[in-house]
Amino acid sequence: ILEANKSFLNMMGYTEKEITEISLPDLITGMKKSQIVDNVRQMVKRTRTVFGLRQYRKKDGSLIDVEITSSLIQHKKDQFIMVNVRDVTERMRAQHELEKQANMLRDQAEIIDIAEDAIVVRDMKDRIVFWNKGAEARFGFSSEEAMGSHISRLLKTQYPVPLPEIKECLFADGKWEGELAHQAKAGQHIIVESKWKLRTNKKGKPVAVLQIDNDITQRKMAEDVLQKSKEELERRVVERTRELLKANSRLVQELKRRQQVEDMLRRGAERYKNLFENSPLGIYRTNPDGRILMANPTLIRMMGYSSFDEFYALKSFRKSCEPTYLGKKIKDRLEREGRIRGFQAKWKNGRNGSIMYVMENARAVRDAEGKTLYYEGTVEDISERKQAEERIEQYQTQLRSLASELTLAEERERRRIASLLHDHIGQLYATAKMKLGLIESAIEDKSVQSELNEIRDLIGQAIHYGRTLTFELSPPILYDLGLEAALEWLTEQVEEQNAITREFVNDGQPKPISDDIRVVLFTAVRELLVNVVKHSAAKHVKVTMRRIDDNISIHVADDGAGFNASKKSYHLAEARGYGLFSIRERLHSLGGHMDVRSGVGRGTRIILQAPLKIEGGCT
Q1: 36: left (phi over 0), alpha (psi -120 to 50) or beta
Q2: For the chain, how are helix, strand and coil distributed in percent, rounded to 5?
Q3: Distance in angstroms (rounded) separating the CA atoms of residues 389 and 385
Q4: Which of 230, 313, 431, 471 has the most other CB atoms within 10 Å of its CB?
């Protein structure tokens, strides 16, 4: 030995000086010196690493088990052997003890194999080291199949509590007992009463677990059957007892229930009577022929009678208060649909013949076979509401008429002012410009000529502005060439004055439109185009004009931002000027209508439709 590290010196009990004074034969036991020398020569000759287990003798004479790894090292021309030594004494001692325990159990195998119980020995990693014939018979695995297998994985064991808790109890008490569920090789489930015993070596270190499993599957099945029978018997006893108790108390409860039902019926009848007699709605019941069977005071008063007997004398109250066709209509609906809701009609007071408006809800009551037994329903007098609605409708009609008249009056005034500008003021400007030209040609003074020429230019600008204003107030093209030409001119103006492309489409059919319709449609389209320019951020606008029978239809569509086309939206749109609501009302007064189709981010299409002529003119 040439050199050794501190770990080896501590392991063997030598100093550095002492270790260099001894040789391998002094350390290795169980081998002759010649065998050791021969092994060294073989290793040098084959230049290979050698592994093995040996026993070394320490300085104090005690023996230890070691695991060695020897390698040949070549340094220049010299050769050395490096030996790594690991003390495995404790591991070998435990292994010897386990083998001893297993051998002892094998010696007892003949006795153990007589037992019907499954007897298993497993190491501390739950690997099977002994498997008796009882285990083979119970679980179907042979000893060769079981040996070395993890017992929980082999038998797919189901534990009553987590396995770590069971092992904790085993290490604390040295034993454990409980019921386990295993799965045999053939797949059937086996319930066992398992007893575990911890086996230790002489130093008290756990080395193995003895497990004895007693098959109690049949017993558990019998216990389950017995328990179910017991539970069934107890259930029947409880049910029978409950039935007897119910039978004993049923008489008392029945008497109480009858009393409660009678009280409830009495109170219900009182409430119904109170509701029936004091309801603000008329309530009735009739047979299928219309004969009154029941009516509350409100309905009797509503019909102009003073008592039910007087009302009952009517053969059919519907024939007395409704037109014949209306009564038949209600009856047909009741037979077909079973009920009606919110049906409005005119009724006649049976006494004085006055007319009232009513809203009726009714239903048909049928028997099990579907045959109608009677009709019943409620009647509400809505005369005041209907009269108010009629007044509002009259006001709206008057407002529409006034708005239409205002529009036409406004257009007439525009046309008058435009005519005044064109026929009078324009002519005066033209005459003044012409006379200034004559004066300019008669004067030789250049400075005066320059001033007169500037005045003529200003008058020319005034004439041009007057013409533009004339077209904006009331374009002559509308009256001279018609609505088609005027609308096309409007789209051209939009394209010329704004960064918006335009498209005008006309179906080419003759459109003999009355002046009132022409003015309203032109004004509406002009306002819609103004809204496109101001509010839509559109890049393209299209106006389509076509005749549909005796009506004219105009579509104004853009690819702009769009808006929420609800009624609320175009009521609020009046803030933009003419306003969609105002356009719609004026068209309505002329017998036309407007349809708005738009959505946020989807552009807008507005459809105007009006008759070509108005019968009797606009009022």
Answers
A1: alpha
A2: 50, 25, 25
A3: 6
A4: 471
Long-range pairs for 343-348 at CB < 8 Å and ≥24 separation? 344/382, 346/322, 347/303, 347/321, 347/322, 348/320, 348/321, 348/322
Query: What token pair was written down for 165?
Result: 């808790």
The CA distance from 58 to 457, in Å, is: 134
Q: How far is CA 41 from CA 32, 53, 67, in A?
A: 15, 19, 20
**Sheet hosting strand 28-29, strand order edge to edge:** 28-29, 50-57, 63-75, 78-87
Strands (E), 216-354: 282-286, 292-295, 339-348
Sheet holding 540-548, edge to edge: 501-506, 540-548, 551-558, 604-611, 593-598
Residue closest to 310 by CA, chosen among 268, 350, 364, 260: 350
Compute the distance between CA of residue 392 and CA of residue 399 in angstroms, rounded to an integer. 10
DSSP-assigned letter for residue 188? -
Q: For the sheet containing 292-295, what is the strand order?
A: 292-295, 282-286, 372-381, 355-366, 339-348
8 Å CB contact between 526 and 552 = no
| Span 422-444, pLDDT tens digits | 566 666 767 777 777 777 777 77
Instruction: Give the CA radius of gyration of the chain.
Output: 58
* Backbone phi and psi for residue 181, each to the nearest 5 degrees, phi listed first: -115, 120
The model carries a pTM of 0.37
Rounded Cα distance, 602 and 605, in Å: 10
Q: Convert the pLDDT of each residue in 221-252 to its tens digit.
A: 888 888 898 888 888 888 888 887 887 787 77
CA–CA dist 388, 365 (Å, integer): 35
Q: Is residue 225 classed as helix, strand or coil in its secondary structure? A: helix
**140 vs 132: CA distance, rounded Å:** 11
Alpha-carbon distances, residue 366 vs 180, 301, 370 (angstroms): 68, 29, 5
How many Å apart are CA 114 and CA 137, to the nearest integer? 12
CA-CA-CA-CA dihedral for 404, 407, 413, 418, to nearest 10: -130
Whether pLDDT at 163 is above 90: yes
Question: Alpha carbon of 375 to those of 7, 295, 365, 368, 378: distances in Å?
Answer: 112, 12, 6, 16, 11
